[in-house]
Amino acid sequence: MPKPPKRPAKPQPLRDPAAKKPDLLHPRNRHQGRYDFPALIAASPELGEYMITNPYGKPSIDFANPQAVRVFNRALLKAQYGIAHWEIPADFLCPPIPGRADYVHYLADLLAEDNAGSVPRGPAVRLLDIGVGANCIYPLIGHRDYGWHFLGADIEPAALASARNIVMANPGLAEAIELRQQAEPKHIFHGLLHSDERFHASLCNPPFHASPEEASAGSKRKWKNLGKLDPSRKLPVLNFGGQSNELWCEGGEIAFLRRMARESTDVAQQVLWFSSLVSKAGNLDDFRRALKQAGALLVRTVDMAQGQKQSRFVAWTFHDAEARGAWYR
After folding, report:
1. Whole domain around residue 240: which residue ranges?
2. Which of 5, 52, 246, 290 has the fewest Cβ atoms nearer than 10 Å?
3. What is the pTM for the complete model shown?
4. What CATH number is associated with residue 112?
């Protein structure tokens, strides 16, 4: 008996990159709902040069244009955070700001658990940004939203120079954000911190590819998800930019995470909570095993979502509940 013909796959609706589901972002995230392009253009007129009508008939920018995304981010930071001057060199990673903000806010919730349920605020709260990058995004958001002070570390001198230019160009940031080069590229924490420094938490957006070829393939998948607004034009290799140290490392994301787990033991008494984004859900079990081997007392996986994108970060500590509470006293 012949098999019945397969039903054609139900077409999936296209996703508008300018539309976000407000219930999926953290409640304190400033980027709820659709982007208010008229307000953004009023604050940053240059953004008007990059406006289009997208395939959904809505005003937007071409999210497949790296320069448009840089100008858009500059407008967001100015309108939402009062960062009047933000510029990064071409080809450096241009981050999705709402998603980066979610990481900061959920990390703040984690810190609140050890502080009688209250999010700790102000300059006494210090955070360590591993791989601060040219964009300096986590210190900018964390300082503007919570008044935290930051140490941003990177192995790339050009990235630190860019971050330093951003800090120096915006009044009040130099007192809150310190930048430091990790002089040993093969290490993460080793040799980075002074013996008397203490941090409430560390954050990290690790390189998630194992090679330039893998990074290029990942970028092609992003093109497919975004949709090619003009198939006739030549598309850049990496749509959101990114240098080698930002996008790939030997062994890929899981090798970096394992190294981070091992090295965190060296500064276990100087950092209350370590944390890192984990791009690939398939790496979670391996990473948790590495943290158990390192002796972490508590490991937390915090899920996040922006629109249809699922993400998460893993946090771990070597301090018991009593020691964590004493950190704030």
Report:
1. 94-326
2. 5
3. 0.85
4. 3.40.50.150
